[in-house]
UniProtKB/TrEMBL annotation, chain A:
This is Phosphonate ABC transporter, permease protein PhnE. GO terms for cellular component: plasma membrane. The chain crosses the membrane at residues 21-38, 82-102, 238-259. The keyword Nuclease does not apply. The gene is phnE. It comes from Thiohalocapsa marina. InterPro entries: MetI-like, MetI-like_sf, PhnE/PtxC.
From TrEMBL, chain B:
GO terms for molecular function: ABC-type phosphonate transporter activity. Residues 1-37 are annotated as: Disordered. NCBIfam families: PhnE. This is Phosphonate ABC transporter, permease protein PhnE. Residues 1-18 have a biased composition (Low complexity). It comes from Thiohalocapsa marina. It holds the Pfam family BPD_transp_1. Keywords: Cell membrane, Membrane, Transmembrane, Transmembrane helix, Transport. Residues 107-287 form the ABC transmembrane type-1 domain.
UniProtKB/TrEMBL annotation, chain C:
The lineage of its organism: Bacteria, Pseudomonadati, Pseudomonadota, Gammaproteobacteria, Chromatiales. Residues 258-286 are annotated as: Disordered. InterPro entries: AAA+_ATPase, ABC_transporter-like_ATP-bd, ABC_transporter-like_CS, ABC_transpr_PhnC, MetN_ABC_transporter-like, P-loop_NTPase. It is found in: Cell inner membrane. This is Phosphonate ABC transporter ATP-binding protein.
């Protein structure tokens, strides 16, 4: 043990170890503080009562009211439309935003890129339901508010994955197209677009699947789709109908997930 | 060999592999070319023309029907236009003051339930994730854990929140339960996939020493998936915060309730203030969690 | 007579005091002055990092030179602005290390992309190239022996076949000069020789001048008319292939580097183009 490097290395390791334990301790402390803050106004009687409540709720939820299905087909169609049209609208907005945000295609690193990144972050931060809440007060209740809410939420998701895909392209292919004397639009068309097309299709299908899920609940705030029926049923405590709606939503979500997984497998 | 290729070799001006090239002396060679088509189309994505057109027509029909089902009430939209502008104006001049009490309480609830729900959710996800990894768990356990994951993943947060509010009453505890439940589905699935992808040779080697199942877990699995687990937990922290702003709409606590009230009362400047705060906190957590991830790796 | 077969007499290249210093401070090229007459095939040799690739890329300004001038015939390329530069690039076909084909486009589209500088954006967007370009592209595919593969995707071809497509693309530009950057870096010895021979042949057929970066001294000696040795961004040898004595090679490659020649740089990442995002990526974007 004569090397001067070894004790130095040990000391750093011990400090790192200490820091790590301190980090975990801090996390535990933070958890305790948060828990007390969160539950200080909690009425615990409700919580102890929860199992009975749950059992009661369950007994009222079964059996589902199957005959209600007749009035669910149209809302289901609306839900599908909200998700699909919302995804299409989002793609229209997200593609240019992604090209403006990607380091290698943005026209200006200092001016345009931060704006595009902010659009992406802002869109990702705000849930579709909140966008829907806002849009319903602006546009009135209906499918249009739902479509736009889904689109606004999806722009960030699609934009983020797409701009990362653009930044990961093989630059030599782009260079080769540039070397032929192609103009900027042609470089985009021949050098960049073919490389990101599979990623683009995969992202679009994946987001469509998520959007089916999200659009099932948009009706809670009046933005159309099967959520409208859910809200109406919950409001009048028609639990057997609620159960049926849950089953329909579950089936839709599973079907769309299966479909999107199949399409994505076909793309690869 | 194909015909054109063989022609190339036959008329090659460099005589053989071994000879020194003496091309400088050779005259440019002339090709006897056959006539080539002056027309070329990229082969279509779907080769079967009938199927291709059927798909195109189906998509077009769907778009017409789908857009037709929107039933836009233009008078109502025109009315709302002024409110939309006011909302945009609210973004430029957000009002933090008049509802600050509500905003502060909502944010506090959101932040506390985000953290507690993430911690508890991660703690529960780990055993479920291990149980859902095919290379570690026996079949019945595997099926049970996959079932839990499937249920948790297919139920929307907001639907879960409705049920929990019905069970434990209004307030952040319902939100906490909702977020913890959603975390389980998200994290266990990704964790299980990570475990299934670990280097089997390492686990094999540890098992070969006669180690018990728990020792295999500790020595072979944990070191390989730990950094990813921390990374994923941080992503989920981020997602949970954003979700916490929504479930307040159905009474599960958090800043969503404040936002809901502000929007219902058309107080767009207060709503904009809440949204800006959410965006700022999301950006902050995103930056700090990417910092932590770099430290871990 | 098909137009591509007619030998061009133009295409003399002149570099005057070409210098490139990267923003990182690396001096890639120092005061390189060279003249390449029409029809001459010149091999550029030197150790990795000697500035071979930078030199080639400064000629068509894929890399912007810091100082010095480049002339193609009477055109001063270093003085051109965007539009003029694009027109000048049409006159210089480039062949790349690792082929640099657009992997997901068909072979035909790759060859036709050599015509991009000549057609409007809309024509190229809808792949409506002029009939003459298409005939010519088929003729070039015949010349490099790939007629049957026109409708295949470029990533379905083998390495040697891909480089042939790369050559056809460069020739589709009807260039006066070929810029060739390590054409055989990822090919086996036999295919390497076939590709080098093909490049020599097409240069002879069309009277093209060429600058060929090459790391394999034996290949350079066999196929080049003239050799320029670069070391640390400076020309240290300029003469016939026969002049590459061990002493000269030591001068170029340095005492300690000398011995076996530089191995081919294989670059596995080439095939890893932007793929479909996996669950981890999606989790981050949620």
């Amino acid at each position: 043990m004569s090397g001067a490097g070894q004790p130095l290395w040990r000391r750093r390791s011990r400090a790192a170890e200490l820091l790590r334990w301190l980090g975990w301790l801090l996390l535990v402390l933070l958890f305790v503080v948060c828990w007390t803050l969160m539950t200080q106004e909690q009425i615990w009687e409700f919580v102890w009562d929860a199992p009975t409540q749950a059992a009661d709720l369950f007994s009222r939820m079964v059996p589902p009211r199957w005959s209600y299905m007749d009035s669910l087909w149209l809302p289901l169609w609306d839900t599908l439309n909200i998700a699909t049209l919302g995804t299409l609208l989002a793609l229209l907005i997200a593609v240019p935003v992604a090209f403006l945000a990607a380091r290698n295609t943005t026209p200006s690193l200092l001016l345009v890129r931060p704006v595009a990144l902010f659009i992406i972050v802002a869109s990702r931060s705000v849930n579709a339901l909140i966008w829907a809440l806002l849009l319903v007060t602006i546009l009135g209740p209906g499918l249009l508010a739902g479509v736009i809410a889904i689109a606004l939420r999806s722009v960030g998701f699609i934009g983020k994955l797409l701009y990362e895909a653009i930044e990961e392209i093989d630059t030599r292919q782009v260079e080769a197209v540039r070397a032929t004397g192609a103009g900027p639009a042609q470089v985009l068309d021949y050098g960049i677009v073919p490389q990101i097309l599979p990623a683009f299709a995969g992202i679009a299908v994946f987001r469509w699947d998520i959007n089916i899920r999200e659009s099932t609940v948009l009706g809670l705030v009046g933005a159309g789709g099967i959520g409208l029926q859910l809200k109406a049923s919950v409001d009048v405590l028609a639990w057997p109908q609620v159960t049926l709606i849950f089953i329909v939503i579950l089936a839709t979500v599973i079907a769309s997930e299966w479909l999107s997984a199949r399409v994505r497998r076909a793309l690869i | 060999m194909t015909r054109p290729a063989s022609r190339t070799t036959r008329t090659s001006p460099v005589p053989s592999e071994t000879a020194e090239p003496t091309l400088r002396d050779q005259a440019p060679r002339r090709h006897q070319s056959r006539d080539w088509p002056s027309h070329w189309r990229r082969p279509p994505l779907i080769a079967d023309a009938r199927l291709r057109w059927a798909l195109i027509i189906a998509v077009a029909c769907y778009l017409v029907l789908g857009i037709g089902s929107l039933e836009v009430n233009w008078a109502r939209v025109a009315d709302g236009w002024e409110r939309g502008l006011r909302f945009l104006g609210g973004f430029l001049q957000p009002d933090f003051q008049s509802r600050w009490g509500d905003i502060e309480q909502g944010l506090m609830e959101s932040l506390t339930m985000t953290l507690t729900a993430t911690v508890v959710g991660v703690l529960i996800s780990v055993p479920i994730g291990i149980g859902a990894a095919r290379n570690l768990a026996p079949m019945p356990v595997y099926l049970l854990c996959r079932g839990i994951i499937a249920v948790s993943r297919s139920l929307q947060e907001i639907i879960v929140a409705i049920l929990f509010v019905a069970m434990v009453g209004f307030g952040p505890l319902a939100g906490f339960l909702t977020l913890a439940f959603a975390t389980i589905g998200f994290l266990s699935k990704l964790l299980a996939e990570d475990i299934e992808e670990i280097d089997a040779a390492q686990a094999e080697a540890v098992r070969a020493t006669g180690a018990s199942w728990l020792q295999v877990l500790n020595y072979a699995v944990q070191p390989q998936v730990m950094p990813r687990l921390i990374g994923l937990s941080l992503y989920r922290l981020d997602i949970n915060f954003r979700e916490s702003a929504v479930i307040g709409i159905v009474g599960a606590g958090g800043v969503g309730a404040t936002l809901n009230t502000a929007i219902d009362r058309y107080e767009y400047d207060s709503a904009a203030a809440v949204l800006l705060l959410i965006i700022a906190i999301v950006m902050l957590t995103e930056y700090s969690s990417s910092w932590v991830r770099r430290q871990v790796q | 007579m098909p137009p591509t077969v007619s030998p061009t007499t133009a295409g003399s290249l002149r570099l005057v005091g070409l210098t490139k210093r990267y923003r990182t401070g690396d001096q890639a090229l120092s005061d390189v002055t060279l003249e390449v007459p029409p029809g001459q095939v010149l091999g550029l040799i030197g150790p990795s990092g000697a500035g071979k690739s930078t030199l080639i890329r400064c000629i068509n300004r894929l890399v912007e030179p810091s100082a010095g001038r480049v002339f193609l015939d009477e055109t001063e390329i270093t003085a051109l602005h965007a539009g003029g530069l694009r027109r000048a690039r049409r006159r210089m076909g480039m062949i790349f290390q690792e082929y640099a084909l657009v992997e997901r486009l068909t072979v035909m589209e790759n060859v036709l992309s050599g015509r991009l500088g000549y057609v409007s954006f809309w024509r190229s967007l809808f792949r409506r190239f002029p009939p003459r370009d298409i005939e010519n592209a088929f003729r070039l595919l015949e010349r490099v022996g790939l007629t049957e593969h026109a409708d295949k995707r470029a990533d379905a071809l083998s390495g040697g076949q891909r480089q042939r497509v790369g050559i056809a693309r460069a020739l589709a530009q009807e260039p006066e000069l070929l810029l060739v950057d390590e054409p055989t870096a990822s090919l086996d010895p036999k295919t390497s020789r076939q590709i080098m021979r093909l490049i020599r042949e097409v240069c002879a057929e069309r009277g093209l001048a060429a600058i060929v970066n090459i790391h394999d001294v034996a290949l350079a000696q066999q196929f080049m008319m003239r050799i320029v040795g670069l070391r640390a961004g400076r020309v240290v040898y300029d003469g016939p292939p026969e002049g590459l004595t061990p002493a000269v090679l030591t001068e170029i490659y340095g005492e300690e580097d000398w011995g076996p020649l530089k191995p081919a740089q294989t670059d596995e990442e080439a095939d890893d183009a932007a793929g479909i995002p996996d669950d981890q990526d999606i989790a981050r974007a949620l």
